[in-house]
From TrEMBL:
Required cofactor(s): NAD(+)
Signal peptide as annotated in the record: none
Gene designation: galE
Subunit annotation: Homodimer.
Matching CDD domains: UDP_G4E_1_SDR_e (cd05247)
Keywords: Carbohydrate metabolism, Isomerase, NAD
Involved pathway(s): Carbohydrate metabolism; galactose metabolism
Alphabetical GO biological process terms: galactose metabolic process
EC number from the UniProt entry: 5.1.3.2
Gene3D superfamilies documented for this protein: NAD(P)-binding Rossmann-like Domain, UDP-galactose 4-epimerase, domain 1
Catalytic activity line of the entry: UDP-alpha-D-glucose = UDP-alpha-D-galactose
Organism whose genome encodes this protein: Hymenobacter aerilatus
Name under which the protein is recorded: UDP-glucose 4-epimerase
């Protein structure tokens, strides 16, 4: 009998890949998504990969009655992975109340309903944005959190605090793992699912692939005067399939009852690559030359951040395997599958 895991935001970029990896690892994922930032065609992609339809519910995770309905219908859910959230940094600056209402409110509602049903196990989708501009690199899980550069980043800090406080409350049975993601890129090897931005991409790699495909005229690199080897921002780019597999390991750790009630793990490669390195690696991996130019730096961009993954490797027993070139090649294959 497959253990049922509710995946909120399960039709999103990371969520859809996690659904595939959960099923392949012997779990029964249940998708909850309102499709506000994803497309229902993703469900077809998942079914094409797995050969089975995954149960899916169109709900807003801030709707307590809708969550109760899922838990009543899907008996014996063993755990939840909470991806559902708004995630565009720039938009969060323009619409802070929408971000606080959705990201923080949905977590509070989910925790309340989980408590009603005696459900304890939660993997939370957090972010390296909680580290702000770090004083030292690489960042460990003990690196101090700093003031967020955006309302989006602040929602992740607040949600982490809510989970920590809830788990510490008298009588609480909550057990939670906070996974702090670095920069997910790439797509499933089948090219059936991948990053599917609605409108103009906010992330580097979709902008690269859309420029390579001729959808965008050129790629603008925001700044080349940072205190980095080539002057461009440095990030830790992790293949989305590797990231998805980290969630499977985290779920199993919770179900096994291993570890503390609240645990934090960085999920990255442990390596930093500059924007120019990503551009050059893409060109080498695909044979496609990119049209790009250097533009002004963006306010709020962190010059450099990448993970120390020692804790994830030693305690969670997880490490990434995909190279930057492999991740970028998979992103290009996904872009080509959608047509130019």
């Amino acid at each position: 009998m497959r253990a049922k895991i509710l995946v909120t935001g399960g039709a999103g970029y990371i969520g859809s890949h996690a659904v595939v990896e959960l099923y392949n690892a012997g779990y029964q994922p249940i998708i909850a998504d309102d499709f506000s930032n994803s497309q229902e065609s993703v469900l077809d992609g998942i079914q094409s990969i797995l050969g089975v339809a995954i149960p899916s519910y169109r709900i807003d995770c801030g709707d307590a009655d809708a969550l109760r309905d899922i838990f009543n219908r899907e008996k014996d859910v063993q755990g939840v992975i909470h991806f559902a959230a708004f995630k565009a940094v720039g938009e969060s600056v323009q619409k802070p109340l929408a971000y606080y209402h959705n990201n923080v409110g949905s977590l509070v509602t989910l925790l309340q309903v989980m408590a009603e049903f005696g459900l304890s196990n939660l993997v939370f989708s957090s972010s390296c944005t909680v580290y702000g501009i770090p004083d030292q690199l690489p960042v460990t899980e003990q690196t101090p959190r700093k003031d967020a550069n955006s309302p989006y980043g602040n929602t992740k800090k607040i949600c982490e605090d809510i989970l920590t406080d809830t788990a510490a409350a008298p009588g609480s049975t909550l057990r939670t793992i906070l996974l702090r993601y670095f920069n997910p890129i790439g797509a499933h090897e089948s090219a059936k699912i991948g990053e599917l931005p609605l409108g103009v991409p906010n992330n580097l790699v979709p902008f690269i692939t859309q420029t390579a495909a001729g959808i965008r005229e050129k790629l603008t690199i925001f700044g080349d005067t940072y205190d980095t080897p080539d002057g461009t921002n440095i990030r830790d780019y992790v293949h989305v399939v590797d990231l998805a597999k980290a969630h499977v390991v985290a779920v199993q750790r919770l179900l096994d009852g291993v570890g503390d009630n609240v645990e934090v793990f960085n999920v990255g490669t442990g390596r930093g690559n500059s924007v120019l390195e990503v551009v050059k690696t893409f060109e080498e991996a695909t044979g496609v030359e990119l049209n790009y130019s250097i533009g002004p730096a963006r306010a709020g961009d962190v010059p450099a951040i990448y993970a120390d993954v020692t804790k994830a490797t030693t305690e969670l027993g997880f490490q990434t395997t995909a190279t930057l070139a492999e991740a970028l090649a998979s992103a290009w294959k996904w872009q080509l599958s959608m047509g130019k």
